[in-house]
Design the sequence.
């Protein structure tokens, strides 16, 4: 007989998007819920993120008058993700698409306000079923003062690091404030909102922090217990059923019973050098370049594996090509591949991808190219007009942070071959590539990769009407510059294999009773593609919602009607 220190209906491991949505969903049915979070701060990578959520045919986009349908979204999955195995089975796609709509409606009903990310296009907008205007939503700015003392337990969000109450779909305008009147107007709105919040002493959250803050507040109001500094250690199993967890809490190990189920929503293993080395496959990565939260170390996935759980897509990650400037999210160069007057090249000086495509696609292209010509790292090449013209959220045109210049990471030369020499790139190769690129680029064309042709490419490019192509112009104004680019990531996206009800499957594809998983702890329904902004948080939130629904419904069905 196991002796329990506490008993709940549902125990959730991890306080990110999937974990808190599940906690809230279960609590709404009257279930007793515990969330255990190993870090002192709540929210995981979700709180650090843009908080954008990609849900096709969602009520917010429909309300904004943008047409979509289940059929189009399913066709889009088929066209882009293709057959990638059971993580993205027809049944799981079907559940993602139907439960996603229900999940957003459920959160809206509880009072969370979402804004439609108009113009933040699907990443494969040109493929069948793609939507140019986009299918993503994000939380509206939210005053976190109502959280009281819990406010200090929230993982800091993107906007805080930028010092502005900026929404994610506004950020691209902020960094292009000098390139169009519309972008300038949006930047002004953000500045006024930030100043207004300061003047009225409101802790105005946006992005992932606004999402997590609201989920947390709603969960606390419904009696959900949240234990921080409480790492999950192992699953407790009885007769093959997961019946609880062992958790370190208040300095000792306690056993907590979970009458209806345990949900693993503990993120992936982006920071585990050991696991990434073991599972990296063709995309080797030793956890050196990840931007995910430090809790992403994979021990909950390993606990389920010890129990016989099946895994898939373990070599995959949400790749994010990252120029080595040392200031992620704050440099003019993070956006460079989407803007004109830039290109990515391998050690032979050759381009190998449409640089303006999705970050996951470009990251994967770096690894693929690296098999024949060194592209990990590859190089970002740009010219002096780029430097003079483009800003980013915290840097103005013509300005590179001093520490970045001093670091020696920025290479500069008077000619393209001289720049190549400095970087160890083949000089003749790079000179030929730039010359070949510049001819058509003068007319805004990229015959080799079609850069700037999709709505997605354009959405993140230069909004000025004066450029022929928002992503393409010649690289022809000396001096020329180069910076190494690494295949960073914002988390891994392979893990436990789950069915359409978010139940963890064993080696015979049978659900392990009592065990559910979502988010980066699982092999994602997105497979090896990132379908649109918010694809990863949506995966976590939707299957968290599904898991809680399933666990509480199964518990209700198993109750003795006469008992
Ligand atoms: C800067 C940045 C911007 C991003 N922007 C977006 C975006 O706009 N849209 C999008 O879709 N994706 C975005 N991403 C990626 C996205 O944030 C993650 O993929 C997603 O949030 C993962 O959600 P999750 O619920 O699986 O895990 P998380 O949100 O990371 O939550 C997992 C939690 O589990 C905890 N945990 C781990 N192990 C244990 C344990 N043993 N015991 C207890 N707790 C444990 C962790 O500490 C963590 O708090 C971004 C990521 C970053 C870093």
Sequence:
């Amino acid at each position: 007989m196991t002796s329990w220190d506490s008993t709940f209906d549902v125990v959730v491991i991890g306080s990110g998007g999937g974990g808190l949505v599940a906690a809230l969903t279960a609590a709404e049915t009257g279930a007793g819920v515990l969330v255990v979070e190993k870090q002192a701060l709540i929210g995981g990578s979700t709180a650090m993120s843009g908080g954008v959520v990609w849900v096709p045919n969602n009520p917010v986009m429909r309300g904004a008058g943008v047409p979509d349908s289940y059929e189009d979204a399913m066709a889009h999955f088929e066209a882009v993700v293709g057959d990638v195995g059971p993580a993205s089975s027809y049944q799981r796609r079907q559940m993602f698409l139907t439960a996603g709509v229900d999940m957003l409606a459920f959160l809206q009903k509880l009072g969370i306000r979402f804004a439609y990310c108009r113009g933040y296009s699907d990443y494969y907008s040109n493929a069948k079923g793609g939507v140019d205007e986009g299918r993503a939503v994000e939380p509206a700015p939210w005053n976190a003062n109502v959280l009281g003392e819990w406010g200090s337990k929230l993982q800091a969000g993107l906007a805080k690091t930028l010092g502005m109450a900026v929404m994610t779909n506004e950020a691209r305008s902020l960094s292009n404030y000098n390139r169009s009147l519309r972008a300038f107007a949006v930047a002004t709105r953000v500045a006024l909102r930030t100043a207004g919040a300061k003047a009225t002493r409101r802790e105005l959250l946006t992005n992932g922090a606004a999402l997590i803050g609201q989920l947390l507040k709603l969960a606390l109001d419904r009696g959900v217990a949240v234990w921080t500094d409480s790492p999950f250690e192992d699953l407790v199993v009885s007769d093959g059923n997961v019946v609880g967890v062992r958790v370190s809490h208040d300095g000792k190990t306690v056993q907590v019973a979970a009458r209806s189920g345990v949900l693993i929503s503990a993120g992936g293993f982006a920071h585990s050098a050991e696991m990434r080395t073991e599972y990296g496959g063709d995309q080797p990565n030793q956890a050196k370049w990840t931007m995910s939260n430090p809790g992403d170390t994979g021990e909950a996935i390993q606990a389920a594996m010890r129990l016989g759980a099946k895994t898939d897509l373990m070599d995959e990650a949400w790749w994010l090509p990252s120029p080595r400037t040392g200031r992620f999210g704050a440099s003019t160069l993070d956006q460079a591949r989407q803007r004109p007057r830039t290109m990515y090249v391998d050690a032979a000086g050759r381009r190998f991808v449409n640089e303006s495509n999705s970050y996951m696609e470009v990251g994967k292209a770096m690894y693929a190219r690296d098999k024949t010509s060194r592209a990990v790292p590859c190089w970002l090449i740009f010219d002096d007009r780029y430097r003079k013209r483009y800003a980013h959220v915290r840097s103005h045109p013509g300005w590179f942070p001093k520490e970045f210049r001093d670091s020696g990471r920025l290479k500069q030369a008077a000619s393209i071959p001289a720049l190549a020499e400095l970087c160890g790139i083949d000089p003749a190769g790079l000179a030929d590539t730039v010359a070949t690129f510049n001819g058509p680029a003068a007319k805004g064309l990229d015959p080799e990769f079609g850069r700037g042709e999709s709505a997605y490419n354009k959405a993140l490019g230069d909004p000025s009407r004066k450029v022929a192509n928002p992503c393409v112009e010649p690289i022809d104004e000396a001096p020329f510059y180069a910076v190494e680019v690494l295949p960073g990531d914002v988390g891994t996206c392979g893990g436990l294999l789950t069915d359409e009800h978010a139940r963890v499957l064993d080696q015979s594809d049978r659900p392990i009773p009592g065990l559910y998983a979502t988010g980066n702890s699982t092999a994602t329904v997105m497979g090896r593609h990132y379908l649109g902004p918010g694809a990863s948080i949506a995966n976590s939130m939707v299957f968290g919602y599904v898991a809680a629904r399933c666990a509480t419904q199964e518990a209700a069905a198993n109750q003795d009607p006469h008992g």
Remarks:
- Residues 165 and 194 are 5 Å apart (CA to CA).
- Residues 535-558 form the longest helix (24 residues).
- The chain is about 35% helix and 20% strand.
- The longest strand covers residues 252-264.
